[in-house]
Amino acid sequence: MRAPYLERDEEHELAVRWKEDHDQVALHRLTAAHMRLVIAIAARFRNFGLPMGDLIQEGHVGLLEAASRFDPGRDVRFSTYATWSIRASIQDYILRNWSIVRGGTSSSQKALFFNLRRLRARMAQNANQQPPETMYIQIANALGVAASDVELMDSRLSAPDTSLNAPIHETESDTANRQDFLVDDAALPDETVAARIDSERQLSWLQKALNVLNERELRIVRARRLREEGATLESLGARLGISKERVRQIENRALEKLREALLRDHPDRTTFL
User: For the domain with range 189-265, which CATH number is right: 3.90.1150.10, 3.40.1280.10, 3.20.20.150, 1.10.10.10?
Assistant: First the structure.
């Protein structure tokens, strides 16, 4: 903070020396004179719970990036050019470290993350007991995002991350933690493998048994029983040129032939049949 301010001509000279000659001394003087700008911008983000020193360091990285791209030939002060890069570097650091859950990946999400608290506080001052749904809609319209995104971001900002290994009861007799109460409704691995093996075995049995059917019986069974949306008796009758009652009779006879073939080859599989 004790570094001297730079006059416009001196700043331009240092920028030219750095850009054309890569003069490290010029770079140091140029960036040191603007560290107070980095500190001032970092102070705006101190309420996000991250160390102030880290915010300043990230802002300094943005300052160096601005120096590497700054064109002294344009009639622009370095502080004006560097402000955006410093703020972007600090914001990116906050998004990466504020939570272990990755968020703010789009420009609209970043705007929502950094402006939600400010807009919510302003609306709370201007309206008494405003319903949350109304507030979410107003903030969504102001930032150009969906109201559901505002509600989700508000829930994220209202509480810190919680570890699944955090104990629920801090007693000697009860050592349960949060992950002990997570329920997985999926089948166990051995059950999944057993079901797949049984399904493949039963399919092979059925494919072999279908060989006992003649062409018309096979056509009816496939259309009626082996498709997700089974054909109706009327549609099959019209297609085959017979009545729907005749289709039903052929189907019953074909199913009985399948049953006999399966029982003959697998007499102990009556449950499957």
Answer: 1.10.10.10
